[in-house]
Design brief:
Blueprint: H1 14-27, E1 33-34, H2 46-57, H3 70-84, E2 93-96, H4 99-110, E3 116-120, H5 126-133, E4 137-141, H6 153-158, E5 164-170, H7 182-195, E6 198-202, E7 227-232, H8 233-236, E8 245-248, H9 251-264, H10 270-282, H11 284-305, E9 312-313, E10 321-325, H12 327-333, H13 338-349, E11 351-352, E12 354-355, E13 370-374, H14 379-396
Parallel strand pairs: 1-11, 3-4, 3-5, 5-6, 6-7
Antiparallel strand pairs: 2-8, 7-8, 9-10, 10-13, 12-13
Helix pairs in contact: 2-10, 3-10, 4-5, 4-9, 11-14
Bound molecules: pyridoxal-5'-phosphate (PLP).
Enzyme class: transferase
GO molecular function: pyridoxal phosphate binding; transaminase activity
Pfam families: Aminotran_1_2 (PF00155)
Length: 407
């Protein structure tokens, strides 16, 4: 049987390969602590669960309008207006079965046959995969470590041309935990206006920040008209399996995404939407508790990881990931790269993490080696895991820093 040539471009997420390996090691009886998964270890708030159950019991189990039930679109508009400090109405809001479908629909609506789309590398791997699926040209941009993994607007300008249709940004960022500075956002907005292209602003970690403000590019003058904000209930309310995301953008774009929903999944599960209304109405306290706990874990990871020989880690400002430079650890252990280091940690220390290529291809062999550590796990497990890493690195260290001149 023949497949569409388009399918040759479709990738999977390397993270899922790691998760499969973790599961099979656990089935063999191995004790593996997973700091790989990007999923909160909290339960969905009780009142949100109850709202979902009540909706099922009230037979809210039929189709809903494709862009979402009015109640939720209104709540979403209120939430975005307050949190992003720019006014949205219900017609600007869209509900979908997760943030991922909104990335898919957004790119489908914005890209033409000759499109170029820029996205962060390292970054959420789905961006590249979907751009390639739609036969556009993927244009990865870097996030310089020396700038705290902020975007360099000069690089974006140098990678922009008249074929650029979309710039994807993600703040707070997966996997580096960085937050894009206001100054960078202002420059990015200027470039987008000059070249007249769309911004997809992936803000699924908007509420998960530890001190500094997170700004949305949509709040800058003129940007609401060219930005699709993508948000999700997955991380903020520990609802990954409910499958519900939400977004905001100019009405014409939202109408087009609504049509894409009609033509693909019809709508988001109706009772899930009723649960989401409750999450938006009452979720403030839950969010605060989660952020307080994540901040403690962030501090723990940052403090303990930097004590491991050969590992250097910047303080994550948001999301629940630490992105650690393991170049020296690889050298100490005689390992080629972070992918080998990840295998070493999994098999020798019983700790699962992800490595650079899980977040896109490297720009050059000279790039430093990185792993991502998720702190969506208990403080106890995080401490145990980092202790194991420290011990195994020390035991196996060959004490030679042959490539250290690269740093
Ligand atoms: C940056 C980013 N965007 C989008 C998503 C997908 O979220 P959802 O579960 O709402 O599809 C994730 C999930 O890991 C993510 O890290």
């Amino acid at each position: 049987m023949k497949f569409s040539p388009r399918m040759k471009n479709l990738k999977s997420e390397k993270a899922f390969d790691v998760l499969e390996e973790v599961n099979s090691l656990r089935e063999e009886g191995k004790d593996v602590i997973s700091l790989a998964i990007g999923e909160p270890d909290f339960n969905t708030p009780e009142n949100v669960k109850r709202a979902g159950i009540k909706a099922i019991e009230a037979n809210k189990t039929g189709y809903s309008p494709s862009p979402g039930i009015t109640e939720l679109r209104e709540e979403a508009a209120k939430y975005f207006s307050a949190s992003r400090e720019v006014s949205f109405s219900a017609e600007n809001a869209i509900i979908a079965p997760g943030a991922k479908p909104l990335i898919f629909y957004g790119l489908l609506a914005m890209m033409g046959p000759d499109s170029e789309a820029a996205y962060p590398s390292p970054g959420f791997p789905v961006y590249e995969s979907i751009i390639e699926l739609f036969e556009g040209k993927p244009v990865p941009y870097s996030l310089p470590a020396e700038e705290g993994f902020d975007i360099d607007p000069d690089e974006i300008r140098s990678k922009t041309n008249e074929k650029t249709d979309v710039l994807i940004i993600n703040s707070p960022h997966n996997p580096t935990g960085s937050v894009i500075s206001k100054e960078s956002l202002v420059e990015l907005a200027e470039i987008a206006e000059e070249y007249d292209y769309w911004i997809i602003s992936d803000e699924v970690y908007f509420e998960l920040s530890y001190g500094g403000d997170v700004d949305s590019i949509a709040s800058l003058p003129g940007m609401k008209e060219r930005t699709l904000i993508i948000d999700s209930f997955s991380k903020t309310y520990a609802m990954t399996g409910w499958r519900i995301g939400f977004g905001a953008g100019p009405r014409q774009l939202i109408d087009k995404i609504g049509k894409l929903i009609t033509n693909s999944v019809s709508c988001t599960a109706t009772f899930t939407q009723h649960a989401a209304v409750e999450a938006l109405r009452s979720g403030g306290q839950f969010r605060q508790k989660m952020v307080d706990e994540l901040k403690e874990r962030r501090d723990l990871v940052y403090r303990e990881l930097n004590k491991v020989e050969g590992i250097e880690c910047q303080k994550p400002e948001g999301a629940f990931y630490a992105y650690a430079d393991v170049t020296e650890a690889c050298e100490l252990l005689g390992l080629e790269n972070a992918a080998e280091f990840q295998k070493f940690l999994l098999h020798e220390a019983g700790v699962a993490v992800l490595y650079r290529e899980c977040f896109g291809s490297r720009f050059s062999d000279e790039e430093e080696e990185y792993i991502r550590i998720s702190f969506a796990n208990s403080q106890e497990n995080i401490s145990r895991a980092i202790n194991r890493i420290r011990k195994k690195v020390a035991e196996n260290s060959k004490g030679i820093l042959s490539r250290s001149s690269r740093r």
